[in-house]
Write a structure and sequence with these properties.
The structure is a single chain. The protein has 2 domains: 258 residues; 191 residues, no CATH class. Helix content is 19%, strand content 40%. Strands 2, 3, 4, 5, 6, 7, 8, 9, 10, 11, 12, 13, 14 and 15 form a 14-stranded antiparallel β-sheet that branches. A two-stranded antiparallel ribbon has the order 1-16. Helix 3 runs parallel beside helix 5 and helix 5 runs parallel beside helix 7. It is elongated. The two termini are 21 Å apart. The N terminus is likely disordered. It comes from Psychrobacillus lasiicapitis. This is S-layer homology domain-containing protein. It holds the Pfam family SLH. Keywords: Signal.
């Protein structure tokens, strides 16, 4: 199931508002169908192998989707040509049955074929017409607060009738293509990657050939600093969000009776989009070591300060850090329409205020298990947050705390015995992900109160992980080391 399809699913599952000050559409990567092709905003390309030789087709590909209750219908239309005058037309309709397992925070999807037509007409008048298509795909999506992770498997069979003329005589024979594949991916506010592997076994009268396609579509947003060069200005620079999209493909083929073996690469990249952000003007961070971190977070609206002073060496409070994490990932928050019934809604804890614009983020973080209260009455909103507490919030938002070893393990830090029990898994995972580093004496200092400057550094590392590290793991590591 494509990540764009999943975006529809998430809308079905929750009524949400996007609370981040920076209003950018959610990124969603999508590998086009199951043919190893690539596309940008102008053109689609794929390689066709049924002739016994690789032939590149290019042209137009369109995708439309319709959602009705728990059924998602996706339609693909391809109109392609080759440099040799060959033509390919293909129309496909898939139907996905979506099931939301609320208590498990997971969604499953089973996809079948509704209709499939395809015809390839070669310049020499030989045609390949799809006669039968059997298809089945199953996917599971693990819905985590900051990122959704998914995996799917596909099995299919295509039967073509090949027609060729010799004089006045038409010869027909059959070519069968067996397909077996899988796809993996993730989606969050800062990016998404959909990576697909398909193995094709092509059984023709001339013999059997094999093709493997690897294709990965990635969309990402990265922050870049833009220098403001005039010296007579009220600011020296600011940040921009660069939104980009890139899809790469690789075909490896072994056609012993004709083309032999080889590899073909395809690549498409959409034109990047630039959005400038507000310029921070704090007066007390000019020479502070965490200035770049603070300015990034302020520009994004993650740290929304009304004062001209940031106080980078003051303690970070629990409520502000929780809100910062929620805004950093555009945490989905439930917006209730005002009614007489909820007009007197009470806060979950006595030290929270429902009238605070940031209350919805803390409430959502609590409901999703990202953050824990002090006790049944108090959240601890104005408590100074420790490194262990901050790291736990971040790792829980990623849904990766379960990647720690079986309980009873010891971390590599010399102050392992000082790590709170409830934070040990998160600190282990954060260290493995490169989100935190020990000091020169190999101490992680879990109970140290984080200053606002250090908390800003941790949040920026978190953003970098969402922007780049997941893409590396789900594209480059999969394509080149799998």
């Amino acid at each position: 199931m494509s990540s764009k399809n999943m975006q529809k699913l998430f809308i079905l599952m929750l009524t949400v508002v996007l609370g981040l000050t920076l209003a950018i559409p959610t990124a969603s990567a999508k590998v086009p169908d199951f043919n190893g092709g690539v596309l940008d905003e102008y053109e689609y390309e794929e390689v066709f192998f049924l002739t016994g030789y690789p032939i590149k087709f290019t042209g137009k590909a369109t995708v439309t989707e319709k959602e009705n209750k728990n059924l998602l219908t996706t339609t693909y239309k391809f109109t392609l040509t080759s440099d040799y005058g060959d033509k390919l037309t293909r129309n496909v309709v898939y139907v996905s049955d979506l099931k939301n397992h609320v208590t498990k925070s997971q969604t499953t999807s089973n996809t079948t074929i509704k209709s499939y037509t395809e015809k390839v007409t070669m310049a020499n008048k030989t045609t390949y017409t799809l006669d039968d298509y059997q298809f089945s795909q199953g996917s599971v999506i693990d819905n985590r607060p900051a990122t959704d992770y998914y995996s799917g498997n596909v099995i299919a069979r295509k039967i073509y009738i090949r027609s060729a003329k010799s004089g006045r005589t038409t010869f027909n024979d059959k070519i069968t293509v067996y397909m077996d594949g899988r796809n993996v991916g993730y989606k969050n506010f800062w990016g998404s990657t959909d990576t697909q592997f398909i193995d094709y076994e092509i059984v023709a009268p001339e013999g059997t050939s094999f093709v493997t396609s690897k294709v990965s579509d990635s969309k990402s947003r990265v922050l870049e600093y833009e220098q403001h060069t005039p010296s007579l200005s009220s600011f020296v620079g600011g940040h921009a969000v660069i939104s980009s999209s890139n899809i790469v493909s690789e075909y490896e083929y072994n056609i012993p009776y004709y083309a032999g073996t080889g590899t073909i690469y395809l690549n498409k990249e959409k034109t990047p989009k630039v959005e400038r952000l507000i310029v921070p003007k704090f007066r007390d961070i000019a020479k502070h070591w965490s200035k770049p971190n603070i300015e990034k977070l302020y520009s994004l609206g993650i740290l929304d300060e009304s004062s001209n002073f940031f106080s980078p060496d003051a303690a970070m409070k629990k409520d502000l850090f929780t809100v910062g994490v929620a805004k950093a990932v555009d945490l989905r928050v439930l917006e209730e329409k005002p009614t007489k019934k909820n007009s007197t809604k009470k806060a979950l804890f006595e030290d929270l205020d429902v009238k605070d614009p940031n209350y919805v983020y803390i409430e959502s973080a609590l409901n999703k298990g990202i953050v824990s209260p002090v006790n049944k009455d108090k959240f601890g909103a104005k408590d100074s947050i420790t490194r262990a507490q901050a790291v736990t919030i971040i790792v829980r938002s990623l849904g990766l705390e379960g990647r720690a070893p079986t309980p009873g393990y010891t971390t590599k830090f010399v102050d392992d015995n000082k790590i709170p029990k409830e934070a040990k898994d998160s600190i282990y995972v954060a260290s493995e992900l490169g989100l935190i580093d020990p000091d020169k004496k190999n101490r992680i200092n879990p109970n140290e109160v984080l200053t606002r400057g250090k908390a800003s550094q941790l949040l920026v590392r978190y953003l970098n992980f969402l922007e780049s590290d997941l893409k590396q793991n789900y594209r480059d590591d999969m394509l080149y080391f799998n």
